[in-house]
Write the C-alpha cells for this entry.
Amino acid sequence: MEGVQSIKQRFELIGNDKKLNRAIEKAIQVAPTDISVLVTGESGVGKEAIPKIIHSLSHRKHAKYIAVNCGAIPEGTIDSELFGHEKGAFTGATQTRSGYFEVADGGTIFLDEVGELPLTTQVRLLRVLENGEFLKVGSSQVQKTDVRIVAATNISMFEAIEKEKFREDLYYRLSTVEINIPPLRERQEDIHLLFRKFASDFGQKYKMPTIRLEEQAIQLLVKYRWPGNIRQLRNIAEQISVLEENRTISGITLNGYLPNSSKTNLPAVIGQTKKEGDFSNEREILYKVLFDMKGDLNDLKKLTLELLKNNDSEKVQEENETLIRKIYGNKEEQPQEQENNVAEVLHLPEPIPEATTTVAQPQEDRYHFAEEIQEEETLSLQEKEIELIKKSLERNRGKRKAAASELGISERTLYRKIKQYDL
C-alpha cells in the first residue's frame, strides 16, 4: 500500500496539514473495498482528488472512472444522463441511450455536488446503492450494474435533510465512510507553499519570471480568510503573474488583489439583518402600550366610583389629579389624547366617547355608572388584529396589497394572517 507522501507526489497534492494527511490516509484505507464514500468540504478545497485516489488504488482501476457534476445537469435530463433512456421515452429521445451507470459498469462513478440531486433521482440512486438495480427512463426492464459510488458535497447534509431536500436513508448509504477536506484558512502553513507552486506553474506557462512575495505580503496571504479556498488562491496567483511587471510583490500590491481584504482569520461578530417579523413585534409593543393605558383608565374609574360612593367631592378631584400625574408624568397631554395618538399610529378605529362623570351627578345615576365601570373591557390582541385586517380589506375593496401597505406589514404577512384567522 502506498504511503501518504507518495500519493501526494503522484496526485500533486501540496501541504503538510494534519487534517489533510488524515483525509488522504482514510482514502488509502477504504480504496481496496467497495464501500460508498462521501467527501465533504467547502467549495474549492480540492474534493475531486479523493475519488481519483480511491479509484486508482482499488481493484477497479482498469475500468472506467466517470465524474458527474450533479449541479450542472438540468433536473429534467439528469435521470437520462445517469440511467439512460429508451427511444421515444420523451420528446427528443430519437434513439436509445446508455447512462453513466451502464457505461461505468465495473468502475467508479464520482457524483460531485450530490446534494443538488432532485428527490426523484435520489430514489433511483438509493435503489442502485441497495441492490445494484436501475431502470432506464421509459423502460420497464430492470438492469444490473456493479459500480463503486464516491459522492461529494459542499453543503450541510443534515440541514438539507431537515428541509426535506435530501433523503436521510440515502445520506446514510452514501456516507458509509465520510472524508472531510479542511478549508484553506485552517491550513495556514500550506497557504504560502501552494501560492509558490501556482506562481511557478504560471511563470512556466506564460514564460515569465516567477513572482516572489515580500514578508509583509506573506503575512497578509496567511491571514486572509480565502472564502474560495484553493481555487481562489490559484486565481489570485495567476492574476498577479500576468498583470504585475515587478516580480517582487509587496503587501500593498497583494492587498489590491484580495477582495474584502479587511477580513482575516480572527473571529468576527456576524451581523444580524432585520427580519420581517421584527415589524410585527413593534406593532405588538404599541398594542401593549395602548392596553396598559386602558388598564390605567379603568383604575381611575374605579377610584372615582369609590370616592363618589363616599360623597367626598374635594377628595375626588384631589385623588384624580394625583393619579393622573402619577400615570402620565405631569404631562399636559390628557389620557384620552394620548390614547387617541397611539390609536392613530396603529390605524385603530376611533374610540367611542365615554360618558364623563362629575360630582354633581344625581345620586340615582351614580349606581348606574358603577355597573358600567365594573364591566371591564376584555380586550384581546388577536380580536383587535382581526378587526383591523377586516376593516382594512373593506376600505381597500379586498385588495390585499393596498391593505398590507395601509397596515404597515408585508403582503406575505397579510396572506399568512388571513389564512391563520380564516378571513
Notes: Residues 268-278, 331-335, 341-378 have pLDDT under 50 and may be disordered. Strands lie at 37-40, 65-69, 108-112, 133-135, 142-144, 148-153, 177-180, 212-213, 248-249.
